[in-house]
Amino acid sequence: MKEKQSKKAPRPGLPELLAPAGSFEKMVTAIHYGADAVYLGGPAYGLRARAGTFDEPAMAAAVAYAHARRVPVYVTVNIFAHNDDLAGLPDYLRSLQALEVDAIIVADPGVLALATEIVPHLPVHLSTQANVTNVNAARFWSRQGVRRLNLARELSLQEIRALRRGCDAELEVFVHGALCISYSGRCLLSHYLTGRDANRGSCAQPCRFRYALVEQTRPELHYPIEEDRHGAYILNAKDLCLLARLPELVAAGVDALKIEGRMRSLFYVGSVVRVYRAALDYLQTLDDSDWRQPERLVLPPELTDEIIRTGTRELTENFIDGPPGPTEMLYDRSRAEQPYEPVAVVRELASLPLVEVRNPLVVGDSIEYMHRRTVHTSPARIEALFDEAWQPLQRANPGSRVYLSLAEPLPGVAVEGLFRRRKG
């Protein structure tokens, strides 16, 4: 008689790690630190008109670079278009197809209809702006030919699981980055206050402004809403961070994890991508039996410690367990204090690393190198600095390129790697 075997939980496949590329340089950094795919925007039709955008030659170079490293490129075409926005769209869609981008990201049904007609073989992903919050909506968009759905940010984990059970399309979830104080980013406040339409790519980010109460006949007097004499950041949400919930999202069958941040710095992109890459690589090492209760899986604490070092606006899990409360806002300032600052990007490796300086460097400075595929950093002390003509320097200013001579050998340094420094 055969012994009855215990039922094993299937090991889930890892989702794609999708990173922002606000510029060619940021894309290179995202790929260096482990992004599986990147998303970027052209000069029009996207929701980040003031981020670094890619004209046709730049996009062609970006696609070539990414594809050489087997990294897909998705292009945002996710404005809510008015009639005059549609005039050049057919030619733009044809150009994207000719460039062999891997998918376009849309939100507007009219843009989707045009894309289906003009470039029927170009895959379409649905933007979070389309606000997919239920199974019927997910099935609707899938019937329109959409391959992947970036779900609304207002969904709980339970709702994400239900969508996975009821829909065959790929599902993508934002896991890290800035949050809009509006429904999945569909905000009118910027247009109302500044004339810049957030839904057509020109958000002025008024949710980050400082506000105060003003009495009509005394406009010169600003009355604080909170205990702050300068006013209050009443609309300023903390940044999303679902790092600790990755095991549950992976087990739920999410196909892609998306990081927000095309307007963020090169160092922010590299720092966040490397933490999520290390987290996914750690999950890949677990046995089948570990996945029986994914809610009990705990990531190594050094991953959480490292994500906190990226700074920004403090962190929240937003709607993942239900509607967030007032503690998920940052009321007293626009940003939290940044504990670390970037200092250099490695550009070449010769007898010494040639780096591009981003914050002043001085001989004797203590810095640390950010390795990839891990959150390990290596401390180093600058013993000497040389310019590109090998003349010694005591100080290197931002924008300059210098050779770093370190007090001790530093193995593992790679081109495109980042150095940082603790503040204070």
TrEMBL record:
Keywords: Hydrolase, Protease. InterPro entries: Peptidase_U32, Peptidase_U32_C, RNA/ubiquinone_mod_enzymes. Gene3D superfamilies: Translation factors. Residues 341-411 form the Peptidase family U32 C-terminal domain. Belongs to the peptidase U32 family. This is Peptidase U32.
